[in-house]
Structure formats: C-alpha cells, structure tokens
Amino acid sequence: MTARFVRTFFAAFLMTAVAVVPIRAQAMRKVEYAARFDARGSLRIWNTAGSIRVTGWDRDSVIVRGSVPADQRFICGGGNTGMKCAVDVPPRNDGKEPGSNLELFVPRKAQLWIKSSSAEIAVTGFEGNLDAYSVSGSIRVEGDAQTIALESMAGPLDVQANATTLRAKTASGEVRITGDVEDAQATSVSGNITVSASRILRGRFESIGGHTTWLGGVMPRAMLEFSSHAGAIELRLPPTTAADVTVSSFEGRFRSDFAAAERARRDTKGRELRFTLPGDHGASITIRNFRGDIHLLRR
Amino acid sequence: MISHPTDADLNAYADDELDAYARLRIEAHLASCDACRAEVEAIRALVAAVGELPRAIAPTRDLRAGIAERIARAQPAETVRPRRTLRVPAMLAAAAVLVVATASLTRLWMLQQPSPPAVSTQNIPVAAMPVTYRADETRYLEAIEELQQMLERERGELAPQTIEILETNLAIIDRAIAESRAALARDPANHDLGLMVLSAYEQKLQLLQRARISAL
C-alpha cells in the first residue's frame, strides 16, 4: 500500500517536473564577456532582478558570465577605462519573470557602480570605490574598499568590509556594519541599524523609527552621534570606554548601568544629560531621541 | 577630552558653506567650547580683513574696457533685469504660502495613493516654526516639493512596490516632523529639537531622491 503510494507520488512528481522545469530551463541562456580593463577603471552594472556577484581580482581585465532570460538582452561594452554591463529588460516587465544571474570579476581597485531593483548584490575582495543601489534586493559587501555608498528602499545593507568612508542609506531595510570603517554614516527611516565595527573615528547613525544598536568598541577621540525619533537607541559599550557623553531625550526613557550616567541623572533636571566616562583620550558620544528609549549599557 | 570639529569644518562654518544640519551641529559645539568659538572668530576676523582689502588694483592702462567693448560689439544687446530682492516680511509671507502649498500638495499626493498611510499626522496640530529655523525649513520644503513634482511626473516608471515603501516611510517621516515641530514650537530655544526637525526633513529629501533613482 505504502510502496504503491510512493510510486504514484513519484510518478506524479516526475510528470510535473517534466512539464514545468524545461520551460524555465529553456527560458535562460548563458552569457559570457571578457575585456581588458584598467586597474582603476569605472564599471557600471545594471541588472533589474536575479543576482549580481562581483569579485575583485588582481588582473587588468573584466570577465562577466551568467544566465539571462531568453527574452532579455545582455549588453556589455566600453573601453579600457569605462565599461557598462546591463541586462536590457523588455518593457512591461512586471518583475515576476526570472531574473538574470551575473557573476563578474573586476580589477580590485576599480570604480564600481551597481543598480538593481530586486537582485541580490554581493561584492567581495574589492578595494576601490563602490556605489550600489537597490530597491528591495539585498546588498552585501566584503573586503577592504576605499569608499562604500549603499542605498536601498527596502533591501538590507550588510557591510562586512573595512573602508575609509561608508554611507549606507535605506528607507525600511536593515543596516548591518561589522567591518572597520573610519568614517561611517548610516540612515534609515524605519529599518534597524546595527553596528559592530570597532574602529570608527567619525560615525553618525540616524533613524526615524528603526532601532539603533551599537556593539562596537569606541576609538580614542572618536566622534559618534546617534539620533532617532521613535526608535530605541542601545549602546553596549566596553566597561573601559572613555568618553564625554551627551544624552537628549524628550519623551523616551533613559537607562544606563554606568555610574556616571546615574549620577548625572540625579543631579540634572533638564532633558539633557552630560557626563564623562573617565579615561584618557576620551571620545565624544552624542545621543538624541525624541520618544524612543535610550540604553547605555556595559558590554 | 572634548572632540572638536576639524579646522576644515570650522572654516566651512565661518564661510557659511555648511548645510543646515552640519551648521547646527557646529553651533551646538560652539555653545560649550570657548577654544573653537575663538577659532571661528579668528577666521571671521581674517575674512573681514581680507574683505577690506581693495577689490582690485587698477592697472596703468584699462585693458578691461577694450575687451568689454569688443564683446559688446560682437554680441546683440541683452536686456539686463535688475536683481529682485525681497524684504523680510515678503519672504516670510512667501515662506508661509510655500509651507501651506507644500502641505496641501503632499496631502493631495498622499490621498491619490491606492492605500492609506500606515500612520497619520491628522491629529497633530501644525505648529509655527521658530524664526531661527524658518529659512532652513523653507529651503527643505522647496527642495522636497520639487522632488515630489518630479516623482509625480515619473510615477508611471515606479514599481507598485516602490510606491508602497515610499508612502509608508513618508508617512512615518511626516509624523516625526509634525511631532518634533510641535515640540520645538513649545520650546523654541531647544537646539536639539531644531536638529531633529531638520534631520527629519533631510531624511524626507533623501527618501524622495532614493525613490527617484529607481524611476530613472
């Protein structure tokens, strides 16, 4: 009885697979492109849906390979110093068609510009300047980039890279920063921001309704600024943190397990608390929140 | 112990080259830092001293006059309009009209959306903006209005999903602006509230710019 059921089920599965899968498989075609390219050249990539994977390498050339739906055109061209690669999506695309999957190898120190609607973007081993935009697709960056500028409407932004400058902006996507960045700015409207980087010298993190969580260390003389309207701001600091701290809270609650903060709270009547976490070469930490809570905790 | 703004920031502040948000951040620091305030005063004194130098040293022969005549002969006469200047009351009136117009346009735009916003600002009274921030707010409102008009024209290029994300987040920002503006009206001397209002406007501007990129 059971064996018969399994056979019937398996047969039905095979028939379905035969009926459906080839349609999808036939709809895709392989693409490949290779060209010499300047080590610091500028490359622009468009791909509406699917995935874009970029790997930086130590060669003076660009290689693109991947699969593209049969009714979409893959275009790639340009010169040694500037190149564009795009998937030309026919008009009236409703976003439900299968996307293109592109894998690119580019000179490590190139200037890279990527735009997508829902494609997953992943950049690894890259040391140049990166500018990436997506509406709802995720953007993930690993490596040692010079500057990283990421924007999304709802897609998550995940930076596991070291960089001199980072700008991450989103409406409702999540922002995660875990690499070492000298100058970092992250803004969101409703998405959460989580920072685990420990070498930020200048950092500004702003959200309207998303939660902001700081899990990183605090560099000597760093300037860190956190601002929110309704999202909670939580800083989990090493116990040895030295910093001048200013906290402005209007309608939210403030909680801290640092003794200096508690003393300041006892002695202050206004909405702004100023206190010092003692130590040499202290940082400056400013926290503003309108009605979200503020937590300043020991890690 | 205190981390001071960089020299570049102080120079940019003294030269009035910073955006509103950055300027207010510097001002917040200057309020409690004598050293940086003195530095800014020194920069301004230098700028003033430079400004008192003669604008030009007249050459022994006026070469410019000849050049001007040749250009005048080569080009048809052009009507030069006098530069229009608005007096302060007129500017305030214009700003007020702009605020109302923008609010109406925003409301109209929101009403045209297929679904209602997730949060509403209807119950929050519209507060008057303190004079200190009025010019900055006007600049933001102008830029926001311009972007919203562009987006309206390009609406057909935006995916429904993008419109949904945009309207949800615009509603969140508008509520934040209304709440912090109301608080600022009650406490106009509060610098942090001013920063929060301008920060929310900046977020709105950036959100609209971001949405527009997807349409291009």
Which short descriptors sum up this protein?
heterodimer, A: mainly beta, 2 helices, elongated, B: 216 residues, mainly alpha, 8 helices, 69% helix, 0% strand
Textual characterization of the structure:
Chain A is mainly beta and 299 residues long. Helices cover 12% and strands 54% of the residues of chain A. In chain A, a hairpin with a 3-residue loop joins strand 5 and strand 6. About 3% of the residues of chain A have low confidence. Chain B is mostly helical and 216 residues long. Chain B has 2 domains: 46 residues, no CATH class; 128 residues, no CATH class. In chain B, helix 2 packs antiparallel against helix 8, helix 5 packs across helix 6 and helix 7 packs antiparallel against helix 8.
Radius of gyration of chain A (Å) = 24 Å
- What's the N-to-C terminus distance of chain B? 47 Å
Output the radius of gyration of chain B: 23 Å
**What count of structural domains of chain B?**
2
Number of helical segments of chain A? 2
Quantity of strands of chain B, as a count: 0
Unreliable residue runs of chain A: 17-26
Strand content of chain A: over 45%
Q: Name the chain pair whose interface involves the most residues.
A: A-B, 38 and 31 residues
> What is the N-to-C order of secondary-structure elements of chain B (H for helix, E for strand)?
HHHHHHHH
Q: Structural class given helices, strands, pairing of chain B? A: mainly alpha
For the biggest sheet of chain B, the summary is: none
Number of strands of chain A: 24
Uncertain runs of chain B are 53-89, 107-120
Average pLDDT level of chain B: 71
Helix content of chain B: 55-70%
The proportion of residues forming helix of chain A, as a percent range, comes to 10-25%
Draw up the topology in text.
The complex is a heterodimer of chains A (299) and B (216).
Chain A: H1 2-27, E1 28-36, E2 42-46, E3 50-57, E4 61-69, E5 73-78, E6 82-88, E7 100-107, E8 111-116, E9 120-126, E10 129-134, E11 139-152, E12 157-170, E13 175-177, E14 181-188, E15 193-195, E16 202-207, E17 212-214, E18 223-228, E19 233-237, E20 243-249, E21 254-256, H2 259-267, E22 272-277, E23 283-289, E24 294-298
Chain B: H1 7-14, H2 20-30, H3 34-52, H4 63-74, H5 88-111, H6 131-153, H7 160-186, H8 191-215
Helix pairs in contact in B: 1-3, 2-8, 5-6, 6-8, 7-8
